[in-house]
Write a structure and sequence with these properties.
Oligomer: heterodimer
Number of domains of chain A: 1
Radius of gyration of chain A: 21 Å
Number of strands of chain B: 0
Distance between the termini of chain B: 124 Å
Low-confidence stretches of chain B: 3-27
Order of helices and strands of chain A: HHHHEEHHH
Strand content of chain B: under 5%
Low-confidence stretches of chain A: 210-234
Largest sheet of chain A: 2 strands, antiparallel
Radius of gyration of chain B: 29 Å
Structural class of chain A: mainly alpha
Mean pLDDT of chain B: 77
Helix content of chain B: 40-55%
Number of helices of chain B: 14
Structural class of chain B: mainly alpha
Shape of chain A: elongated
Largest interface: A-B, 33 and 37 residues
Shape of chain B: elongated
Mean pLDDT of chain A: 83
Number of strands of chain A: 2
Largest sheet of chain B: none
Chain lengths: 234, 283
């Protein structure tokens, strides 16, 4: 059944994949500009700059779309940090990634399309908060500053003003690139390696996680709740 | 005997002329300056004193016909640059100038002094940073190649002519004209190309082997190899060039971080696959 509402509605999926496309373009063109002498690009440096600038402006528009979408459609609530997220949540999730996932333990925060309060596990939430509300604004602000370099101060921190902004811009983008690698890898941790990618593409919820037994306890309440919800669905 | 006396007389008079010409003015007003008072249209004595030729008396170059008024001297009678500057390097420069668009298009003989003011010339070895060099180098080009009475008018005119560049104003203010208007392969920077031949490949400068550092400011780059780990740090005196000013420390750190991350992800993925196999066999 297709769902254009729920945790991953159409607007969010459009933003997500558009953002991916733009960021990949920005990464390729950004690397090409940064390492311009390593390998002459098939297209000229001028074209690369033009594409990078255009993609950067579009990325800003997409970011604004993301912010408004979050506020308008209520997606922002999934980013609110709860008391559970910090102390037990992060540790629980980290321990799952460090050994639970190898031993076949159930996911501590299994996906539940009917949970109105939680969509992300605590580590997911913290990393998304950092990327979307710290790194992306830094990337966008420094990127726009570099579109108007003559407005920047001549000297900053003992370097040309443009250099300070460019260094922050370049390595913020690089940090987001590293995040993308981990994000893509963790996307393979669904029931099958492609399940979560399919979910993010189509919006169709995967089947709730099966009720696996933990080493020292019986069925997880969360998983049980999902099975019940699944049965109750029309 | 008469011939020997005549030769000695000639030699002595020649030495006197050179000696007089090379004498330091010592801050005293030369006879020339009694009439040629510093105004906007004459030579700026302060700048002249700072220049490479500042120690010479006016008559060292303005040789004959200046003792009476009105002066009867013609330019042909003046000392030419090549009378003194006979180094081998200048022969290569002269060759480059002959091949340049200046020599080909100039109606009169194109001379060194058309670009290099003999009164204000400062050699590259005395220039401390890139900004100063650009200012001095571009001054000679802008005298002929920009329309407008004021510097601001000239800037507008030049920005229009260079609108194919991103941030044309910045490029013009922080780049020597000869960076793009000479052949990158030619080392003397005197083979000025026609407009159609100007360098348009951005990576000539925006690259690690930036022509600016390897050729144009090579003499400055030798003085200052690195600054805070940035490649081509000498350009930092003046600007930041994407592609040319990478920070090698940050780049190596970033590469190490990427390596660790990929190793971690690969090891984690492999671990999942191996443990899943164990679990399947056990069940």
């Amino acid at each position: 059944m297709r769902r254009d509402f729920g945790p991953y509605p159409l607007w969010l999926r459009c933003w997500h994949w558009g953002n991916v496309l733009l960021f990949v373009i920005l990464l390729i063109t950004g690397f090409s500009m940064h390492f311009s002498s390593l390998a002459p690009p098939p297209v000229t440096f001028r074209t690369v700059v033009l594409v990078h600038n255009t993609a950067g402006i579009l990325l800003t528009l997409f970011y604004c779309f993301f912010l408004f979408g979050n506020l308008l459609f209520g997606n922002a609530r999934y980013y609110l940090i709860t008391a559970d997220d910090i102390a037990p949540g992060m540790l629980r999730q980290a321990s799952y990634y460090l050994w639970g996932i190898f031993l076949g333990y159930p996911h501590p925060y299994p996906h539940d399309p009917h949970n109105e309060e939680r969509k992300f596990n605590p580590m997911q939430k913290m990393s998304y908060l950092t990327v979307m509300f710290l790194l992306f604004p830094m990337l966008i602000v420094t990127g726009w500053a570099l579109l108007f370099p003559y407005l920047l101060p001549n000297q900053l921190f003992g370097m040309p003003g443009i250099a300070s902004w460019a260094v922050v811009h370049t390595y913020t983008g690089y940090c987001i690139f590293l995040f993308m690698i981990v994000h893509t890898y963790l996307g393979t941790t669904g029931a099958t390696p492609g399940q979560l990618f399919g979910f993010m593409w189509s919006g169709v919820s995967p089947e709730p996680a099966s009720t696996l037994r933990t080493p020292d306890s019986g069925e997880r309440a969360g998983s049980h709740a999902q099975v019940t919800a699944q049965k109750d669905r029309p | 005997m008469r011939a020997v006396v005549a030769i000695m007389f000639l030699l002595a008079s020649g030495m006197c002329i050179v000696g007089t010409g090379m004498a330091q003015t010592g801050g005293q007003e030369t006879p020339c300056m009694q009439c040629h008072k510093p105004t906007d249209i004459t030579i700026d004595p302060a700048r002249f004193a700072q220049s490479e030729h500042g120690g010479f008396d006016c008559t060292f170059c303005h040789t004959t016909g200046f003792s009476k008024f009105p002066h009867t001297s013609t330019r042909a009678e003046m000392r030419d640059c090549m009378d003194c500057h006979k180094e081998r390097k200048l022969a290569r420069i002269a060759q480059a100038v002959k091949a340049s668009v200046h020599a080909k298009k100039a109606t009169k003989a194109f001379r060194c002094t058309n670009c290099h003011s003999p009164h204000y010339f400062i050699p590259a070895s005395r220039i401390k940073d890139v900004s100063e060099e650009i200012l001095l180098a571009n001054e000679s080009c802008l005298g002929c190649h920009a329309k407008g009475d004021t510097l601001a008018d000239k800037d507008i005119d030049l920005a229009k002519k260079h609108d194919y560049l991103f941030h044309a104003e910045l490029h013009l203010a922080r780049t020597a004209c000869v960076a793009c208007h000479t052949s990158p392969e030619e080392q003397t920077m005197h083979l000025i190309l026609p407009k159609s031949g100007a360098v348009r490949d951005c990576t000539t400068c925006h690259a690690q082997n930036s022509m600016l550092a390897t050729k144009l400011y090579a003499h400055l780059a030798l003085k200052e190899r690195a600054q805070q780990g940035f490649v081509n740090a000498i350009l930092f005196n003046n600007a930041y060039l994407v592609g040319a000013n990478r920070n090698s420390w940050l780049d190596w750190g970033a590469l190490a971080l990427l390596g660790l991350l990929l190793f971690g992800v690969a090891a984690h993925g492999l671990g999942r696959w191996v443990f899943a196999g164990f679990r399947r066999r056990r069940s």
